[in-house]
Design brief:
The complex is a heterodimer. By secondary structure, chain A is mainly β. Helix content of chain A is 0%, strand content 50%. In chain B, 0% of the residues lie in helices and 52% in strands. In chain B, a hairpin with a 6-residue loop joins β5 (32-39) and β6. The chains are: A mainly beta, B mainly beta. The A-B interface holds A 31, 33, 35, 41-45, 48, 50, 55-56, 58, 89, 91, 93, 98, 100-108, 110 and B 31-33, 35, 37, 43-47, 50, 52-53, 91, 93, 95, 98-106.
Chain lengths: 114, 113
């Protein structure tokens, strides 16, 4: 069964460093998302991506964040100059098309900023 | 206003009994989708069930059913015959428009033996 794959599963980084979280969406999907979940809290939308550009982004997704689909398969989230409060679980999701089909989530990357 | 509201931060249910997890939503878009996801302690998000705003019948997937009451804007998840493995966080979500999903704050379900 096709699935969304995220790497690494856990990333520890020092405050101020840049991190890149990687996702491989399901191959024929067209819409891609990043979400984060601070430990014990709700899942928060960060950004959606379609046709090689950002479709929507939340207030959380400021200049510190960027997304890219560099090679047609990977979908990356870059966090520059990480802060302690960026520690969270980051989920990538993909969806087939514009209709009301479910989004498939990756298993998440746990980011710990120390 | 909150797009998705889950009013039960925690629930207990006896094994083999049914349980209903509440979810209400807020949208003026006539076309939307409602979803439930399960998040076990391992952290991943597992899709459970989907209901489209134009669907006439309530969605069912095995032991999961979605009690969709459009006029009341509610989309409660019913789990029949609870199992110990059902203990997890459950998130209600809504897709409005082509892009982002809105998630509720979650309900932590504990199934007691």
């Amino acid at each position: 069964e096709p699935e969304v794959t995220q790497t690494p599963s856990h990333q520890v980084t020092q405050m101020g460093q840049e991190v890149i979280l990687r996702c491989v969406p399901i191959s024929n999907h067209l819409y891609f998302y990043w979400y984060r979940q601070i430990l014990g809290q709700k899942v928060e939308f960060l950004v959606s991506f379609y046709n090689n550009e950002i479709s929507e982004k939340s207030e959380i997704f400021d200049d510190q964040f960027s997304v890219e689909r560099p090679d047609g398969s990977n979908f990356t989230l870059k966090i520059r100059s990480t802060k302690l409060e960026d520690s969270a679980m980051y989920f990538c999701a993909s969806r087939l098309d514009r209709t009301n089909t479910e989004a498939f989530f990756g298993q998440g990357t746990r980011l710990t900023v120390v | 206003a909150q797009k998705i509201t889950q009013t039960q931060p925690g629930m207990f249910v006896q094994e083999k009994e049914a349980v209903t997890l509440d979810c209400t939503y807020d949208t003026s878009d006539p076309s939307y989708g409602l979803f439930w996801y399960k998040q076990p302690s391992s952290g991943e998000m597992i899709f459970l069930i989907y209901q489209g705003s134009y669907d006439q019948q309530n969605a069912t997937e095995g032991r999961y059913s979605l009690n969709f009451q459009k006029a009341r804007k509610s989309a409660n998840l019913v789990i029949s015959a609870s199992q110990l493995g059902d203990s997890a966080m459950y998130f209600c979500a809504m897709r409005e428009g082509p892009t982002e999903f809105y998630f509720g704050s979650g309900t932590k379900l504990n199934v007691k033996p």
